[in-house]
Amino acid sequence: MPQNQKVLLLPILPGWPTLEASQLIGFAEDLDEIDAARALAESLGRVDCMFLQGNLDSIPWRDEYFDVAYLGSTATDEVRRVLTRQGVVHECQSKF
Fold it and tell me: What is the distance, to the nearest Å, from the Cα of residue 96 to the centroid of all Cα atoms in its chain?
């Protein structure tokens, strides 16, 4: 994946540290999961990541922002809203 991609991660999937991105935004409902991802990002020196509370039904981001979405389930209209027209969705059943 090109490094200049803006990546949406919902939920925060275990394989996220292997993703290269100019900006990686991960959402989860569980605050402990968010805290763990933030701590791991800091320990890896990943300054391109942001982890926030959220879900598939309400993504607090502008339309057509993300280039790629890694999802733990099927894409919703809300996910499609925040993806660019050329955006790609990866529905992950497990680690990637």
Answer: 13
